Structure formats: C-alpha cells, structure tokens
C-alpha cells in the first residue's frame, strides 16, 4: 500500500510517496507560499501529482493546532487568520482521502515508527525550524491531548513579559529559538550597530531568509552575533524542555527539524546541557538525540496517519 505524506513548514513543503515499510519511494519539495491557505493547498496538490505512484490516501502535517480536519491556528504561515478545512480542500484537489495532523506530532510519529524513537514508550519530540514544534509519545502511544494541541513545546512560556511570539503572546520558547524569531533579533541588533555575516551568507546562498544552512555556516565561522542569538535560543529551549520533563518524566528527547539536520548530535548535546539545570531529578536513563530520518520524519509520520485511516476504514 502506498500513501503520501505531506510536511508543511514555515519555509518549505515536502511531499513523499511512502511504502508499507515506511520507506520513502520518492519526494518533492517547494517553498511554502505566502499567499494563504489556498495557495498552499494548490502547491501540495501539484507536489502530490509530481511524486506519482498509486497512493490510496494523503496524510498532512501542518504547523499549528488542528482539530477535526481543520487548522484552527497556524502562527508561522501568513494569511491563515481563520480556521481552514484542509481535509476537504486537499481532497477536492487530489481526489484522495486526507488525514490531518500537527507537524510536530507527525514528525515524532515518523521517528517512533521508523527512526530514533523506535522502541521507546515515553518520548518528547522537539522540532526546530521556522518555529518550534513538538510531539509526545506517552505510555507507548502517541499523545495528542483533548483537542489535538498537546506537545506544543514552542509555546511554553519561559520568560514573563518577554519577546513577542508569532502566537501573539510574550516569552514563549519559539520567541527565542525559532529561526524567524532569531532572524528578527539579529536584524534588530544589526540596526543597533552590531555586525554579523548572517545577511552576507543568506545572500550568497540565494536564500530569502536565514535558513538552517545559513545559521550552520555562521556558527561554524565563529560569528559572534550568531553565537549569541543562537545561545539565547538554546537557553530558552533548556528552560522549556526542563519544565516538560518535570511534568512528564520521559526517557528520550528527540531533536528534529532543519537545524538538527544541519548541526547534528552537537546540537542535541548542547540542548541537553542547557536543560539539565532545570530538571528537578535528572534520570540516568534520560537521553537526548537527533532525529534519524532528517527531513523525512514528518513525511513518514504523515503517511502513517493516512495508512492507519485507510486500514481502519477498510
């Protein structure tokens, strides 16, 4: 059985054709449109056609709160001001049944089924990209919460009255550790007289924003401002993850997303070091690691959502 997994991010959309053993048979990627939900759905439909195959359904991961087939709020995509029925919209465009999930949840699902979290019963997933997403596996089952919003580590408040977040509140983890927020901080500091190579690297790489590869290069070159802003983000992650660990006592934290793919295990080690002071009783069994599937985590997890729905309905 072939299914399609769709991973929508604030910067890119990736679509993959996935087989029974969670292997990605083909994929396609494009920049995420900024013209609103309709444009995003159009691009997804084009990418689904591009990957081909004979899929029986589509799983869609979106960076926001989802419930009963609708995206209720999507902070990092412009033009998503009201709830959107993505299931009907994408099904109408492709003729295939669609299942919707949060991008952090489906990313962790992919890692739990076929990646770094396989065999673990209690896991926190932290996805670092344009924003900061998250997911949970508790007691050997994916945990979505009462309204599908569980695992939103990016919107744990770590500083009262702190920096403005895309969700409209202040002091969230994402306000410090999301790439969009870090870019905003860098440009404000440059306006105040600081210097950095980040903008030069962005232009040299032909990027519209400071992507993960831009940050990787700046950090590798010892860019002082990049290290400072990135360090603030890691510190915020440590506080937020520590709070979650004190409540849920998971034994594995999987770090995924573009920054994790570029920076690897060094990033996981650094986040673990930043988290430890905030954990009341650090467990000797607690481990931090990077996602094993890279960019394919969300695609594999979203495809699995579709496969489960098709099997349940057959």
If you had to describe this structure to a student in words, what would you say it looks like?
With 314 residues, the chain is α/β, with parallel strands linked by helices. The chain folds into two domains: 3-107 and 295-313, ATPase, nucleotide binding domain (Nucleotidyltransferase, domain 5, 2-Layer Sandwich), CATH 3.30.420; 119-290, Nucleotidyltransferase, domain 5. Helix content is 41%, strand content 21%. It contains eleven helices and 13 strands. The protein has helices at residues 37-51, 86-94, 103-114, 174-177, 179-191, 198-204, 212-220, 224-248, 258-263, 265-275, 296-313; strands spanning 3-8, 12-18, 24-31, 58-62, 65-67, 70-73, 84-85, 98-102, 123-128, 132-138, 141-143, 252-256, 287-290. The strands form three sheets. The chain has a five-stranded mixed β-sheet with strand order 3-2-1-4-8. Strands 11-10-9-12-13 form a five-stranded mixed β-sheet. Strands 5-6-7 form a three-stranded antiparallel β-sheet. Helix 1 crosses helix 2 (86-94) and helix 8 crosses helix 10 (265-275).
Short overview:
The protein is of the alpha/beta class.
Distance between the termini: 13 Å
Number of domains: 2
Radius of gyration: 19 Å
- Shape descriptor reads globular
Largest sheet: 5 strands, mixed
Strand count: 13
Oligomeric status: single chain
**Poorly predicted tracts of residues:** none
CATH topology of the largest domain: Nucleotidyltransferase, domain 5
Mean model confidence by pLDDT:
94
CATH class of the largest domain: Alpha Beta
Q: What is the H level of CATH, i.e. the homologous superfamily of the largest domain?
A: ATPase, nucleotide binding domain
What structural class is derived from the secondary structure elements? alpha/beta
Helix fraction? 40-55%
Provide a count of the helices: 11
What is the CATH architecture descriptor of the largest domain?
2-Layer Sandwich
Strand content: 15-25%
Question: What's the SSE pattern?
Answer: EEEHEEEEHEHEEEHHHHHEHHEH
Task: Record the strand order, biggest sheet.
Answer: 3-2-1-4-8
């Amino acid at each position: 059985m072939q299914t399609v997994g769709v991973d929508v991010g604030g910067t890119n959309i990736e679509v993959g054709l996935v087989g029974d053993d969670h292997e990605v048979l083909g994929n396609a990627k494009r920049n995420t449109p900024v013209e609103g939900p309709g444009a995003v759905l159009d691009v997804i439909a084009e990418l689904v056609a591009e990957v081909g195959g004979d899929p029986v359904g589509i799983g869609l991961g979106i960076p926001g709160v989802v419930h009963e087939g609708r995206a209720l709020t999507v902070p990092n995509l412009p033009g998503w001001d009201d709830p959107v029925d993505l299931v009907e919209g994408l099904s109408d465009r492709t003729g295939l049944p669609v299942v919707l999930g949060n991008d952090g949840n489906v990313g962790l699902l992919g890692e739990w089924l076929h990646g770094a979290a396989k065999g673990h019963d209690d896991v926190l997933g932290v996805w670092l990209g344009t924003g900061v997403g998250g997911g949970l596996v508790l007691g050997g089952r994916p945990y979505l919460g009462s309204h599908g919003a569980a695992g939103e580590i990016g919107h744990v408040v770590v500083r009262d009255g702190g920096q403005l977040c895309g969700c409209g509140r202040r002091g969230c983890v994402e306000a410090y550790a999301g790439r969009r927020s870090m870019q905003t901080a860098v440009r404000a500091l440059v306006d105040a007289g600081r210097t950095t190579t980040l903008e030069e690297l962005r232009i040299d790489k032909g990027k519209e924003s400071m992507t993960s590869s831009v940050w990787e290069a700046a950090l590798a070159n010892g860019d002082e401002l990049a290290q400072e802003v990135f360090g603030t983000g890691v510190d915020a992650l440590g506080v937020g993850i520590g709070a979650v660990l004190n409540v849920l006592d998971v034994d594995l934290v999987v770090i995924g997303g573009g920054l994790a793919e570029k920076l690897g295990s060094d990033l996981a080690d650094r986040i673990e070091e930043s988290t430890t002071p905030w954990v009341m009783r650090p467990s000797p069994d607690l481990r931090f690691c990077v996602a094993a599937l890279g960019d394919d985590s969300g695609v594999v997890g979203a495809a699995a959502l579709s496969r489960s729905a098709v099997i349940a309905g057959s």
